[in-house]
Amino acid sequence: MDGLGLRNVSSHCSISDMDDYDLSRLLDKPKLNIERQRSFDERSLSELSIGLSRGGLDNFESSYSPGGRSGLDTPASSARNSFEPHPMVAEAWEALRRSLVYFRRQPVGTIAAYDHASEEVLNYDQVFVRDFVPSALAFLMNGEPEIVKNFLLKTLQLQGWEKRIDRFKLGEGAMPASFKVLHDPTRKTDTIVADFGESAIGRVAPVDSGFWWIILLRAYTKSTGDLSLAETSECQKGMRLILALCLSEGFDTFPTLLCADGCSMIDRRMGIYGYPIEIQALFFMALRCALAMLKHDAEGKEFVERIVKRLHALSYHMRSYFWLDFQQLNDIYRYKTEEYSHTAVNKFNVIPDSIPDWVFEFMPTRGGYFIGNVSPARMDFRWFALGNCVAILSSLATPEQSMAIMDLIESRWEELVGEMPLKIAYPAIESHDWRIVTGCDPKNTRWSYHNGGSWPVLLWLLTAACIKTGRPQIARRAIELAESRLLKDSWPEYYDGKLGRYIGKQARKHQTWSIAGYLVAKMMLEDPSHLGMISLEEDKQMKPVIRRSSSWTC
Ligand code: GLC
């Protein structure tokens, strides 16, 4: 361990690293193009779906980096990113290590916030599944996979618990939102309590936890090359149980997943009920990750088939109906209503008058994004950062859509990034709408917390999306903003205000995922080959959707 808290990892570069990152091809290209042409992630979905059963690593992932770092220094990256650690990096590592939570002397996670000054601890002294993801990625990138493995196994055990809210039993596959380790110093025993939504404010089950768990299992496998964990019958069963929850048939007419408000990072009423983009993007990504890891045995095979079908339907639905750009907006603006039958253009009977004024101003001529929600007569036009970044990383967004999302971030920088990356949602809901939508939530007043607050943790997702789309300069700009404040302000959970200039009204300090998110962003920018553990390449078999405007008028 050196002074930075970084473990010294070898600059080992295996043959398999090269598959992922074709150096010779890159070097032929003019330098300017290099950034756009890079592809750091993996093979197509159809190739991945061959799965583990047919022969391990070769089929699963073409690249892994023993020790967590590929050590591949392309001239392009070393010239631009000569890595002189920012003084904040060492501080961040120290803070991240302070947040470690141990169970029987083994590290199993990181505490949500280490804020002694805060009068109310609430549940910030727990290990949250979603909050642990950036911590896990930081440890994987630093060549410390053990804690990630411990976490995956511990949460898998918790999944096996019987979960009840009052007299109602939750689905078997549900993963906890968070857990807490209780140390008994006299008896010298450790016990765990977990929260599956039965203690959470609002009593909502975290739909995102299971998806993050699958995504993390793949990141671990990809980063370590250790297939044995994902191959265990326990992990295979854990995945199947999660999938059984979201692939079951019911009354749904859409391939998207119907959710209650508060079921994800935005874990209280914010009008995201229905088909929130955050969950749909994570759902898509988890399905693709599971497809790569599920064995094609008697039990796994059926799931593989269901996943393949769902992915096709889901990508079609999302790319057609959630996508909004200037052209789409203009089409919706001119929609006819009350259409019946298969020939309907306005399938969900969206009334053009329900389009909010702000979106006409906000929409640039070049650029686009996946809107927040689509259901009968309701389009939530708000921008949500997490869903859009995950859409890029999972290749739910086509390459053109991914570029358009980055174009939008660039041209609406002040609105979406301002002085602190990154707004969780845009715009904020105010006055009457705020009353109706949030139920008068004083924590979610305009431009605060989930209602248009700025969350430093999102920096890692933005950075990953920037690298994937070949636009690291955007990430660099955002990281610079974070570096000007985060440490000085003691790593707040979120910032308030239209520009994100003020430390959030009720924000915790020393929030672990703000710390880990910064580290992950820095490490990815320094060694972009890390991106592979959290990114999936486009599946060439999933045909891009023909634009609604052209297909529907013919
Ligand atoms: C808040 C956030 C949630 C996070 C938790 C722990 O409840 O809304 O997303 O997981 O704090 O940090």
UniProtKB/TrEMBL annotation:
Q: Which InterPro entries match?
A: 6-hairpin_glycosidase_sf, 6hp_glycosidase-like_sf, Glyco_hydro_100
State if Nucleotide-binding is listed as a keyword.
Answer: no
Family annotation (SUPFAM superfamilies): Six-hairpin glycosidases
An example of a GO molecular function for this protein is:
sucrose alpha-glucosidase activity
| EC numbers, comma separated | 3.2.1.26
Q: Name one GO biological process term.
A: sucrose catabolic process
What does this chain do? Invertase that cleaves sucrose into glucose and fructose.
Q: Does the keyword Hydrolase apply?
A: yes
A matching Pfam family = Glyco_hydro_100
- Record region (Disordered): 63-83
Protein name (record): Alkaline/neutral invertase
Family the UniProt entry places it in: Belongs to the glycosyl hydrolase 100 family.
